[in-house]
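Archive record:
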Amino acid sequence: MVRAETLPSWRPGPTRQALLSFLEAAESVPIGERVACFDNDGTLWCERPRYIQLDFFLDALGGAIDGDPALRNRPEFAALLAEDQAAIAEIGLERIGLALAGLFEGVPPHTFCDRVREFMDRTVHSGLGLPLRSVVYQPMLELLDELRLRHFAITIVTGGGTEFVRAISDDLYGVSPEAVVGTLIEYEFGRTAGGVPWPRRTSRIVGGANEGPAKVINIQTQLGRRPILAGGNSGGDREMLEWACGGDGPGLALLIDHDDEHREFRYTSTPGTFEDSEPITDTAARLGWTTVSMANDWDVVFSERG
């Protein structure tokens, strides 16, 4: 049943109606099969001018350089600090990501999560001047709320670091840490000085970046259930969105189009680790997905809860 207050920040029109129609149709799906998977960067919160996770690591790098100035000369860090896009492209994002992950090598997971939360609490978004906790998309929070009312299991499937997103997923989205599927850092077993077992971070990644086909594989291996709703914003989400529409019953692929330069940014999202064969908005039109125009479909953009 659609209530008067359903999705209040979504403007009337075909996109809102497609969502409402899907929600009604999903009532016929057994509760155990009501699964929704959402990308994070650019889908649930702002990803421009830089990924928030990258800002976190750059903040940590600044602190590390204070203690060891020689780090400034490491090629991966020098390219980032100089914002030298040619050098960054030549080095490659994977190598740079591993170098940044090394800043927390040997750190136990709870300490890493505490660092993430502390960063989120004190940092202002570099492009919008808003607290980081406020650059979550209000209409998407309303959609998550509506899905919960309809007994959906909600998961976040991100190309970002699993532990980074787990540190904030419950607080920002009401999604429990175990429902986050992302790029996995490898852990090593160790013990505290008192002999208590404790995992510690390495600078190695398990299985590569969680983008493209990897999202489908990791949803299956880590969650074990196919989504009937998937939301994303780039070619890194394509296979996940296709999968959500691949069953016999109701399915919805939701693409966020960043077309609002006044309230956010105007750009076409691209994957971080590979090149698209076509713009993702063209893919959405060709495959009949529901495309959300940020400019036309949302009354407000950013969270009223931050």
Summary: The CA atoms of residues 76 and 95 lie 7 Å apart. The chain has a mean pLDDT of 95. The two ends are 29 Å apart (CA to CA). The domain at 14-297 is CATH 3.40.50.1000 (Rossmann fold).
